[in-house]
Every structure is written in C-alpha cells, then in structure tokens.
Amino acid sequence: MKDAAQTLIDTEDEVMLRDAARGFLAEASPVSALRANRDAGRAHDPALWADMAQMGWTGVLVPETAGGADMGHRAAGILAEEMGRVLAASPFLSSAVIAATVLRQAGPAAQGALQTIAAGRATYALALDEGPKFAPAATAMQAERQGNTFRLTGTKAFVADGTTASRVLVLARTSGAAGDPEGLTLFDLDASLAGLDRQALSTIDSRDHARLVFDAVAVTGDDIIGDLDNGLVALRPGLQAGQAALAAELTGLAGGAAAITLGYLKERKQFDRTIGSFQALQHRAAHLWSEIEVTASAIANAGRVLDNAPDDAALAVSLAKARAAQTAKLAVSEAVQMHGGIGMTDAYDIGFFIKRARVGAEWLGDYGYHAAVIGAARGI
Q1: Is the alpha carbon torsion for 88, 319, 332, 135 positive or negative?
Q2: Single pTM value for the model
Q3: Which one is the CATH code of 5-123: 3.20.20.80, 1.10.540.10, 1.10.3720.10, 1.10.730.10?
Q4: What is the pLDDT of residues 219-267, one digit of tens each?
Q5: Parallel, antiparallel or unpaired: strands 224-225 and 273-274
Q6: What is the CATH class of 233-377?
C-alpha cells in the first residue's frame, strides 16, 4: 500500500523531516516499546523524550528566540503522524504542541517557560475535562479570589500526562456558572503545589492519564495566562493545535494498522492461498487506503491553515479531527477482523492500535463534537 500522507508533502524540508522521524522512531520506539513500557508500569520512556528534545522536536512550535525550532503546525503534524504509526508514547501533544502554542501567545512573560519546553526540561498537562465528554465551557471548578490569590477547588476527570507532568495548565471558573463561555480563567501551575492530588487512571491505551483533585490550591494572579475571565480565548489556539496534531496521530495510527494488516494478508494462508489474494479482502483494503488518503489531505490542510491563517482554522481542524477519528476506527476494525481471532489476543500488536484509537477519538472532542462545529460553521 502506498503511504497516503507521503503524496501530500510538497516541500523538501517536509520530506526530510518525515523520513528522519520515521527512521528514528522505527528504531527507537517500535510498537514493542509500548508493550515494554506497559509491562514495566511506565507511561513513557524518559530517554525517548530526551532524544526528541535533542532533535528539536520538543521545540517544534517554540520560537527561535526561546530556543525552539519554530517549524510550524504542519511539521508538528508530520511528527505526530509518525509517532502514531508506531504508537510512540510521549508528552509531545500536551507539552510541545498544546502548552507551547498557548504560552507563545502570552508574550515575553512566557519566554522562560517556552525555553524549558524546547529544552525538554518541563512537561505539561492540560487539566480541562470534568465530565465524560469534552466541554470546556461546562467547566465548574472554582477559583475563589482572595486579594491577589486564588483558591482552586474541584476535580479534573481525564488529564493526559497528568501523573508525570511537571506543570499543569488548568481552566477554572472565576465568575459565572457552568456552561457560560465567559468567566473562565487559565492558570499555569507547578504540579507539586500543596493541595493538588494526582491520581493515576488505568486506561486501555497504557498511557499516562490522571484524575486531578484540587483542594484549595493557592495560586496568584501571576499564574494567569491571558486575561482574567477570558481563559477560553487564551486556550483556544492551543486546543486547535492539539486537535490537529491528535488528528495527525490518529491518521498515522490508521496507516500503521493498515501496514501491519497488509503484511499479514500477504503471509497468512488458507486453502493453500495467501488470504490477500481473495478479492473481497482486496476491496476492503483498497477502501481503507482511499479513506486514509482523503483524511491525510484534511490533516495536511489543517496544519497549513493553522500556519497561515490561524484565526480561520476552526473548520479545518474540526474536519481533520472528525475524519481522523472515523478513519482510525475503520482501520483498526478492519485490522482486527482481517487478523481473525488472533487479532483480539495480547500476543499480537494490532490490539494496541485499537485501544489507542478509541482513546484518541474521545480526547479533545469526539466525532459528534467536531461534527457539530462543522455543521455550525456551514449553517446547518
């Protein structure tokens, strides 16, 4: 199967970045590394993160003035896509994409924080969701003001990289009621603050996820990112960057699952014939390739719109995330079915793909959420 995403790369730098990333990850973080991390009880391998920092990946969206590579969102998507192909576990999305995008909007005050991200010394988590679905405006966690101090009280239900991150971006309510898009404030906090309890969650994708409980955690006005009561505006660029990169990861995951499945179809025999010679399976493989091709186009478009016209990126990003979730679902479903019964066993790597696809489809907005954004943008 031809690599669908490869046909969409139109610059020499992007070709070189993809080739370098694929070669590095194939050696340093094959799917077997995810199995090893899981069996060892690790969320991710710190040595892999250090290598990513050495190659400049942690600074992909950090300005050069803060020690970053500033390669842009399309480049971040290429890296995320290649990580998805091998299920490489790291805090890349939370730190190098979401946090870096949020902080670079904050101006000179965030220069030091950006430098620590680019150097790989700091990792971030985004404490946002409080219920089973992505709904930023539904935030109810209180930030009670006492002079220049705020006391954060409440719970964040599903925080990616929540147990290992050194810092946390937290959205809390400083005025209004749950459901109001106004009255929310974004804070950048040290994860070791007194009163913050980080409880590890056991999730099917064997990644780092946590439930964060805030018990009157004391912060100050200096910890605010953006403007008081206007946290969604400060957070939105980071969310869109994260959604686009997560969509890219899911598309890479779909490609990785498809590649493993095609390899199996060429090896497995029934009735003295490789099962890949059966026309019905060929049709299904061709349909999957077509879906990955179209989705890869949406991914590339989202990255380029974020780079060139970020204020107009909402539709492109939601289209990419919605399509990526559905394409990944199709890819892993076909993969498990074409593998037959062994596809459901832990002995075969394909099971890891279906688990990550399920979590990735929900994080930062599921298909229904993004379909609603697309519908609203089109006046439906």
Answers
A1: positive
A2: 0.94
A3: 1.10.540.10
A4: 999 999 999 999 999 999 999 999 999 999 999 999 999 888 887 777 7
A5: unpaired
A6: mainly alpha
